[in-house]
Amino acid sequence: MRARMSHLSMLxxxxxxxxxxAGAANAKSAAGTVILATGESWRLSTEGRTPLSRxxxxxxxxxxxxxxxxxxxxxxxxxxxxxxxxxxxxxHAYQPATAEEEAAIRFELTQGTVRTRTGKIGExxxxxxxxxxxxxxxxxxxxxxxxxxxxxxxxxxxxxxxIRLAPFSDTLGCIQGNLGACSTPESADLxxxxxxxxxxxxxxxxxxxxxxxxxxxxxxxxxxxxxxLHDTHGKVLTPTATHEQVLEFVERDDVLPENDQTAPPSxxxxxxxxxxLRDVLMLxxxxxxxxxxxxxxxxxxxxxxxxxADMDGDGLRDDIDPTPNQANTHLFKVDNRSDAFTESQIxxxxxxxxxxLDAYDPVASHSLYNLQLKLRQTLxxxxxxxxxxxxxxxxxxxxxxxxxxxxxxxxxxxxxxxESFGQLGASAEGIEWLTALRADQVSLWQLEQDRHxxxxxxxxxxxxxxxxxxxxxxxxxxxxxxxxxxxxxxxSFKADANGRFQIEIGTQRxxxxxxxxxxxxxMLFAENDYLSVKGHWQGNTLVVxxxxxxxxxxxxxxxxxxxxxxxPLLAQWQTRNTNGVTWGHWADFAHLDEDxxxxxxxxxxxxxxxxxxxxxxxxxNNLPQSGRVQFALSDASxxxxxxxxxxxAEVINPMLQVDFDQKRFVSRFDVTAPGxxxxxxxxxxxxxxxxxxxxxxxxxxxxxxxxxxxPNGDSASLLFERDLDDDGYVSGxxxxx
Length: 737
Prior knowledge:
By secondary structure, the protein is mainly beta. It has 9 helices and 45 strands. The chain has 5 domains: about 30-225, Sandwich (Jelly Rolls), CATH 2.60.120.1440; about 225-255 and about 330-440, no CATH class; about 265-325, no CATH class; about 465-565; about 575-735, Porin (Beta Barrel). It has a 17-stranded mixed beta sheet that branches. Strands 25-26-27-28-29-30-31-32 form an 8-stranded antiparallel barrel. This is FecR family protein.
């Protein structure tokens, strides 16, 4: 009995193994993936009807259907297939060549419109590619094309490459279900250079028509299809020696929106009763003060600005801006394909110069998916890598383009970088960081100042203790916005890891002596009325970006620690003047102490202050008695404080409105700092007295605001401070005109 059971168990095990192997052999690999789905779309398969959304897989045998929306697929060989609204298509086959089988791609369009850009399988085996319709077959020669099927009418348009269209004919050997183009006396070829399209009515011969068909201009084309600058019909413009250049969109599937959102998402209501506060907040009774299509209540609850229709000033109203509090996020970063570099050219650049790459930054007009682009400016990418200290620096837009290139399908630049730096002697740790940077697996903090930035991965920070001396290793003149440069020289640079540094610099105009702060993660920052300094200290090296405010000249310096200094760096008070108003802070942005406040308040001066800034408030004369005035930000200074130290901060999206009838004001802006994922919203509303002194109302504000109006009420200065949930806070001052 035991022997029989043993044999039976063995047979069952063998049967289970065979079934498992058969199941594995029969498991289908995905033909492609949905990278964008808008509206309703489905898959019909042997398992029934299944809704499709982004990241869903599609397989050979699937019947794909769209309703009001469209569906975009990235196939396994990086081909792109876009199925337009009210369309039906079958994927009959999609497989690469193997040792046993040839490659095969066959689609069948039974209704609607499809646009396809061929991938590697189609490029390598176009004789095994076919798109069938109910009465005609289409083959390719490496192509980006669109087919429109409307009942018994078939139209074909080619963006690049070429196609061959032929009506089915058993007599001539063009049979539905075969692969490759049909070469018959009735077939017709079409290329992108023909300036024409093909039209076929069932039962008739193929007609060639000049121009562009109407269905092309009405298509919903996703951004992944843009291979260049397009005309109003979606036709790629040919590069010339003048202003037209071939462009390529950045593609990164995981940041595409799940679907179109025509209405704002539901959210919690603000913790205040707007009905009783509209007057004091200067809100319109209509409920949409700025007329941007979003209610005041919604905007207050979502850290938006109910007083400004375009909060970030990027030209898009808040109701249609995907990121209303972040300017320029609707821009696509692109590369200049006409000057693309080969791997050998990149290596040559890295050996003999710094890395350079021409790039362009076009603006998508008013819609994330609008392919009508206009060239805004030409960027020259000058990027410098310091792999050992895990940082890079250069022109802000250019470095953003370089970082965006990590997601380009071509990837040539980032494919070549690790090997190229390795040949130049880069350390294994540096190459490892570069590889992780390409995979977006390390954090990057950005120190931005006007047109240039320093990007770095937070590390161990400064090395050593005590006051250290640094010498200049290199300097680069970055010029002014007009492109005119001048030289500068750092005569002395001292820093200590306890939070202070001192710099002496000579420009063609003046000599300056400035002290500043060494903050969290080795960030350096300092400012006065003449200079602004930002930098990064990692190990025993520094990279420092300096801006001369009067000339708008910028310089980048590389410094290295060369010795020690016995003299400690002492605290220094920084007196500032903006719009005729006196204010100040410690040079290292340290906390204000009672002794300093008492000293500043001598001679009966009225002082407003927060943790880091002090403001002399003077009585304002000749204030207007009526009217509502909108102010513009003229200057600001701010810091973000965490448990690990200070970071320099920036004020963005500013708004100040003053109602002289009610003697009330309301202000709204955001504060950003390196390493923060989201901006910190500052909102304050309050009143001012006959002398123009301004105080926020805690019931109407999420931060403390205090300051005063200037003479004649044509300027204002406001201190602000907001405590955050993570024991951090932001502190700063704003000046308005």
